[in-house]
Each structure stands twice: as C-alpha cells, then as structure tokens.
Design brief:
Keywords: Methyltransferase, Repeat, S-adenosyl-L-methionine, Transferase
CATH class of the largest domain: Alpha Beta
Distance between the termini: 47 Å
Radius of gyration: 27 Å
Protein name: Arginine N-methyltransferase 7 isoform X4
Pfam family, one: PRMT_C
Number of helices: 16
Organism: Cymbidium ensifolium (Orchid)
CATH topology of the largest domain: Rossmann fold
GO biological process, one term: methylation
Shape: globular
Largest sheet: 7 strands, antiparallel
Amino acid sequence: GEPCSDTTVRSMQVYLFVLKPPAFSTSTALRHLLYSFRCPFSLFFGERLTPSPIPLARSMSSLAAGKHCAFQLLLNPLTGESEWIVVNEKDDDDVDETAFSASRSVLAATSYLDMLNDSRRNRAFRLAIEKTITGPCHVLDIGAGTGLLSMMAARAMMECTARGEAKVFACESYLPMGKLMRKILRANGMERTVKLFHKRSDELQVGVDFDCRASVLVSEILDSELLGEGLIPTLQHAHDMLLTDNAKTVPYRAITYGQLVESTFLWKLNDLHGNEVGASDGIYLSSVGLEKIINAKPQQYAMHLNSLCSEMRLLSEPFKIFEFDFWRRPDSHGETYIWIKPTDDGKVHAVVTWWVLQLDREGSLLYSTAPNWVVSSKTEGEGVSVSRDTNVLFKAVHNATSVSYFLRDDKSTVCNSFQTHDCHLFLSPERIGIYGEKDMRSAFLIAVKNALQRLRVSPLCVVADDSILLTILAASLSETSKVISSFHGFQGKGCAYVQAASVANGFSMDRIHILNKSISSLQSDDTPWKVDLFLAEPFYHGNEGMLPWQNLRFWKDRSLLDPILSKDAIVLPCKGILKVCAMYLPDLWKSRCCLEDIEGFDHSIANETLGACGNLPPSLKGCFLAYFIWQCGEIKELSDVFSIMDFNFSEPLHACYGKIRMEFSEPGICHGLVLWIDWLLDEENSIVISTGPVNRYWKQGVKLLRRPLKVDAGSFIEVEAFFDASGGELTLEPLFPPP
C-alpha cells in the first residue's frame, strides 16, 4: 500500500543534540513531554522547538449522583485571570453558552478538525476496520473523539451479520468531546448502536460497564511522538483487563523512523549561548561561567518541516528506531542501538523522526507522518561533527510515555541530559531563538538605553511581563536604576535566575525586586514612589500560543498603574501596529474546512465546536487561529502589508477601530487574512520589532474566508476591525465589493 501523508495534520519531531562533557553519565535519558500533533512528521532537540497551539483552558472531570461534569479552567488573556467553568452532561438543547465557549476555545486549538479533514487517513482506517471485522464481535474504541472509528466498526459489523446487529463500546474521557460525539451518533442513527462511556479506559470494568471482554480494539491515541498520549499504558491495561486473548487491533503496529540532519535554523532554536557569543553586545542571558542557566524545554516538539527542506542537509539515510505492536501487550521500557553511516560530512543539529502506522495485519494499509523528502524518495549546542568515513552509534530509549536519543562516536557522547538547578529556566525554542537574535537584542538594547538616558538619575523601572531580557537590560544599562519585575509565569524561579544572571552582567540584586505575581498588584501598595519606565516585550511564559492581540495584557496593567506613573513616564513599547496581509493558504484552508460527510458519516454538527472556518454557513462565524504561517504548507502573499489599527500604549487601555481598503498586488486565490503586531519601541517610530510571517519565531493570527476568493491584481476588498477593551477580543470582517 502507498503510505498516506498529509502535511496539514501531523508533525514530525525534532530532537536537538548537545555535546556532552565527559564528566556526565551517558546512561541518563532526557524525558520528553510532547505537544499534541498537527501535521505529518516530528522533530527533536537535545537542549531544544513547536506547533500545537497552547490551549487557553484545561479541565478536570468528576462523577456525582450518576451525572458527569467537567471543571474547565478558562483564561482571560487580557487580565491573566482565570475561572473554573462547570461543563455538565446536559441535554443537547440545554446549552450553557459560557461552558460552550470555554470548550470551543480548547477544541478549536486541537488537531481534531485537521485529522477529520485528512481524507487519506479516514479512508485507510475505514478499509482496515472493514478488513478486520468480518463477523459478530465486541468492539472497544478507546479515545473515541467524534466517534468516527466507532461508527465505522458498527457499520462493518452490521454489514457482515445476518440480523444487522452491532455491539460497540466507546470511551471518551473529555466531557465536552463526549457530548459532541453523542450529537454525532444521534445525527447518524448510531446512538443505540454505539454505547458511550464518559470515562478513561482504565476506569472501565468488565462485568460492570459491559458483559464481556472485547475481541476487537480500534483506537488512535497517537501524537507526533507516538507515545505522548499514553499509548503504552493504555494498551497494557486494555490487554490485561478489557480484551480477549489474541484480540484484533486497528492499527496493527507502529514503526518509528529517524534521520540525522544539519540545520542552522534548528540550531538557533537550541543554542542561546552560541548566539549570544555572536551578538557580542555585553548582555548575558544564558550562562554563568561555564554553567548554562537557560535551556529549551527538555522535550520533543512537533513541527512542519517541509518548508525547511532547502535549508537542511541530510546526514544519513532514514533508519528504523522502534516497532510497537498494538495486537499484544507492549513493554514499558525498550532500548535499541544502531550504527549509522553518515552520508556526508557535517554537524548533527537534530534528529528528525516520524512514524508509520501499519493498519492491517498484512501490511497493505499504511499511514505515514514522514516529511516530503522521505515520501518522495520512498524510503555543546554546536552540534555533533560527523564524517562519512566514520560510523556513529545511535541509541534510543523509551519508557511508557516518552523517547530519548543519544549519539556517540569515537570522540564524544551526545545526549539530551543536563543537570538543573534552582536558577535554571526552560523556555520554548522560539523564545530561545528570539533571545539569540542579534537584531532583536540590539533593538531592545538601544530602546532601553535611550529611554534611561532621558529619565532621572535613579529611575524606577517596572517589567510588566516575564521578560528576562528587559529585566537584565534595565539593571545593566543604569548603575542607579531600581527594577521591579513581574515574572508571574515563572512561578518562583525568576528570582533565582536573575540572581545567577546578575553575576555575569555585573549588577547588584539590591536594586532588583521580583514580584512572582501580576504587576497590577502594585496598584494596591501604599507607596510614595512613581514608575519612570514601564517595560514589556510582551512575553508571557506558558502562553506563547496565543493570538497576537492576546498579548496586550501589559496595556491593561499599564492602565491600572496609571496613578503611580510619573509625569514623564516612558512606556516601552510605545505603540503596536496591527498589520494584515491577504494570502494564498490552500493547505491550511483545507485542514480547517467545514466537515460534511466523512466516509459516509455526517459530521456537520461538529463544525462550530471544533472551530471550522472554510465553507462556513452564514449562520456560523469563523474563529481566529494562531499559526506559524511558515509551517502552513504552500503559502503566497497576494497583497502588500497594510496597517489596520494602532494601539497607543501611552494612553490607558481603550477600544480601537480600523477600516482599510486592501488592494491585491498579485492574481490568485485568496484563502484568508494573516494578522500580526509590529511593536514600535520608541516615540520616533525608528525602532521596530515585527512579528510577521518573515520572522519564524512568532505565531500570527489567521482569519480564513468562508469561501476562497479569486482575485486579480488591482482588485480590492475592504477590511473592518474592532478591538474590545473589556475582553481583549478582536473582530474582523472582510467586506467584498458587489460583483
């Protein structure tokens, strides 16, 4: 069978390698915690890369008096405050709008819609299920989602039994998704055929929830790393407690593959120390002496790498790493050793990995998350030097939920293990890249230095977000400044970090105060002093997946602190300019298109909940999506970049409105509008940091059109936007000229 791959659904993983000092033990594996997948391949780093959007909510569930409910944490991005929203197991007509909105904010940020729009994936699973179910049986679907696999199994069973009966049990522990699945089952006449449990699979009991063990398991609890959603412990419990001996499974097995690559871009996402040396600006964020105090998070990261093909050098052929059989109980621990012959001289900055699903026993139905270059071929932070004349030893270790990798040649051992201390901070790979970018560092350094020169002798500087760069700049560039930093997102680790960094940067901690809470708390302090310099990047640790305008929390804080700002206080950045560009985005539009018939099952009722955008009916409104545009497959700009709205941070927070006429500069098909914010760091507007698509470290906001629009050079649309200061939400409407 031809491997199935869709660049809009899952990501490969990147694993970065660091030269390991001889004193460290080579037996310590680095634990990886994984983002949910989005497109067909995955990446790994040794010290440290992306896209799964960071959800704005998390949930817990409980069972009371036989009724299920979920408690979902909903975050207000403008205030940073959160509240628990109760999601009850109610009738479909009894809708709690607040709970629905909270659920939608989470589900729209997942890959559910992307997967359901992957027709090759859906077809491969249908064929495998129909091939596996050839007679009466009991089927169990774990992590049922919308119930697609459950309905496929029920239909296959009904078609091969004399009386057309089926017995399918499905478990979906996330209550909002379970409620959606119940609606979909009802819409397809399957509500009585598929029995749904709002439970984890390890809470199911034979003899209590169903009469006997299941003889067929269908499931797709897979992420880009394969193991991150608990595949191994789930299969172990299922084989021990829920399945018959020799039970059939779909998928049948999964195989992981890897490839050694050299990539300057991936190296920048991993090695802040090396980039700081190149910047030569006298500011040190990454290390004290020889000890690194900032690293990328020690985990695997899902990315769309096809757009990096021309920038990467492949240093090996693809090699097989692990094989996981679904049809038998898996082991919690596994190791493999592979001697790899490099195909070229170079430095290994990362290992790109992916997996291939064998859906049927015979191996005729496959689904792959490999990058395009694999499909087409059918087969110290500086990286690890390799030579085509010398083999390198690759070691892979997995536990129940994660995988670690090691490289070894005759001279060194490379792995992803490192010792951590109280002062150690883990940042996202994009943040590592930003802090190592010479132009960005220079822009902030000049802006802060100029601002300090205009202020009184001992200025009070307030850093309103989690910016370690601005904290160190404010303390380093003035010998008399006093600095108060929020560092709310670092949960107590910020103070230890700054204390360690003060040694390398030559300032005293006597001038620094770390709040470890929102900067707005200063308004309640009865103090006589005034704030001279109010600073933000903005950067809120842990919320990097937000839409661009959801980073305006510092504007809200600046407004709350207005009474304690000095008469000549400087706010940096001074302004934010909301930019917009019309773009050709066929892959993204396809992946976020409205669902209709999926392998014979109506899913249209799921569109609003899952955040569908393309082909929306007039009664529904599409949501904004946060994406790294450079990872969205085929893209093309069809217009110039326009400024649609200004945010003036010298004024208190207020509503904003903008309307522009956008003229298309290129003919083509417009799928949507891409938005970002350019930050103006000085009043003269001479220092600008752009977060647009050309800069790969920031996500942009995307507003997909209801229908793709054919445009000609010189044609135009009008775009109207409104920013709501009360909730921090942006509404945007493209206004099309009459035909």
